[in-house]
Structures are given as structure tokens and as C-alpha cells.
Amino acid sequence: MKRPRRSFRESVAMFLSGRNGVDSLGRAVMILGCVLAVVNLFLRSLVLALLSDAVLVYVVFRMMSRNLVARRAENARWWNFCKRIKDFFRLQKNKRRDRKTHVYHKCPHCKKTLRLPRVKGMHTVCCPCCHERFEMRVK
User: Is 28 exposed, middle or buried (0-12, 13-18, 19+ CB in 10 A)?
Assistant: First the structure.
């Protein structure tokens, strides 16, 4: 007995099932490859062309990979890296906004950044994260 012939759409769906697909790291690397390719249009460098091609091949490799555990771990590291950058710029924005009313100081024990009211003198501060007490002078 003959098996029924699959449509092209079903064949593609079967091929792509269980693959990683496009994630945020894949999008970022794809944008990097495209930027390198556009820059190479003006510079005409063989090294830059090979680098942009290698980046785009890596994007396709990540999209077609069935090793989902490894790809998710890579994507999680990418998210952590982006989060650290966003947190740094958010802290700088908040420091600039609060410069007249608050001071920012790091806990010497856990290194957590604390936002404290700007009141001159010596203060005993209790860190909300590690619950350690330390002395701090506000100028």
C-alpha cells in the first residue's frame, strides 16, 4: 500500500520540528552579520567578507540546531550580558536624576548598590540584601 504524499508545507514543518529557530542571540548575531556585509560593500575587504559570511553561517547553524539545551544556555548567557548592560545604564540614569536628593553607595559586604537619602554626616546603614551594618559618611 502506498503512503500518501505529503505537501511541501508538511515536509518543511517536519524538517523544522525540534529545531532551535530564531532567538534573541540569533537575531543579534544576524544583525551583526548584515552590518558587516554592508560595511564590506564600502571597504571591499576579503577578511571582512569572510567574517560576515562566517557569522551568517553560524546564525544558520544555530537556527537549524537540534541541541536545544546548548542553544538555550547560549541564549541565557546573552540575556545576562544584555541585562548587566541595561542595569548599568539604568543606574547611571537614576544617579543623574537623584543627584540632589540621594546618594548611591555600594555595600562593602555584598556589593549591592544602595540608594540612600542625602543627609550630611555619619550614618549607620543596614543593607537590605545581606543585613550587614556598616558606617558611611555623606558629604
Answer: middle
